[in-house]
Design a protein that fits this description.
272 residues; alpha+beta; six-stranded antiparallel β-sheet
Length: 272
């Protein structure tokens, strides 16, 4: 007897071969992602970056603009993501109440430390930043919603990896050495595993100029009701303010914020 397909799914749902994809839609999504990762692009820049003709790209942009997914700045003829993209993004955030419940603890964390507080989750092997509470200091970290960062070179990433299964951590290095971004980046899997063990023991992770020179990040994990690390909260700031002597106290403050968010979403923190 043939298996009945799940509601809302065609029989070929898991088939990602070319005949089950819509090429025009795929092209539109690639263009939208390019715009989202930039501060705006001209038609020529988009066409060149994607290897498409300007006429083809223009048709895609006009279609996306009809749905407010992109918009054109007529002065500079620069295309940007539009309000429709923002609305779609907020729908993603509504899938979980962690963003809403984290807001007050993050604001308190920013006031206590004087540094920017961030919230992120793991997605496709990277950290996806969901929201932040910015400090008013002139020099500060900035991770707008939607920013991504490699997990092994991120405070939140390492805070999550420390409580992930060992095989998930090992998978990061299957392609060889981990990518390096600064002289301080951990690129060997055994060194990363040692760092994650230290993270579990002290309760917080440290990005010590591993992603960007001159910036430190201290992070702690947020757990769901099953004791699974599902998100991380952090504070980031320049090394002249977040000095080595300040890290233990900031780590305690970040851990307290993570515990408050865990409690607010009905989660249960796991031990080291």
């Amino acid at each position: 007897m043939a298996q009945t397909p799940k509601r809302g799914r065609p029989r070929a749902f898991h088939d990602k071969t070319e005949q089950n994809t819509v090429r025009a839609l795929d092209r539109a999504m690639v263009l939208l992602q390019s715009l989202a990762q930039s501060d705006g692009m001209t038609l020529s820049e988009l066409a060149q970056s994607e290897g498409e003709s300007p006429a083809t790209v223009y048709r895609v942009l006009i279609t996306l603009a009809q749905h407010q997914m992109v918009e054109l700045d007529p002065v500079g003829q620069i295309w940007h993501v539009g309000a429709g993209t923002f609305r779609a993004g907020t729908a993603f955030l509504r899938r979980t109440n962690v963003v809403e419940r984290a807001r007050a603890p993050m604001q308190a964390l920013m006031r206590a430390t004087g540094e920017t507080a961030n919230l992120g989750i793991a997605q496709d092997g990277e950290v996806l930043f969901l929201t932040q509470v910015e400090t008013q200091s002139a020099i500060r970290a900035f991770f707008p919603p939607g920013t991504r960062s490699p997990m092994h070179a991120s405070g939140i990433g390492k805070a999550l990896l420390a409580w992930f299964p060992a095989e998930r951590v090992a998978a990061l290095a299957r392609g060889g050495a981990l990518a390096g971004f600064t002289p301080a980046t951990i690129t060997a899997i055994d060194a990363l595993q040692a760092d994650l063990a230290l993270t579990r023991a002290r309760g917080f992770a440290l990005d010590d100029e591993e992603r960007a020179p001159g910036m430190r990040c201290v992070a702690a994990p947020i757990f769901n009701e099953h004791g699974e690390a599902i998100a991380g909260v952090s504070v980031s700031g320049p090394v002249f303010r977040v000095g080595p002597e300040a890290v233990p106290e900031i780590g305690a403050q970040v851990s307290q914020a993570a515990a408050a968010i865990t409690e607010a979403i009905g989660g249960q923190r796991r031990g080291a």
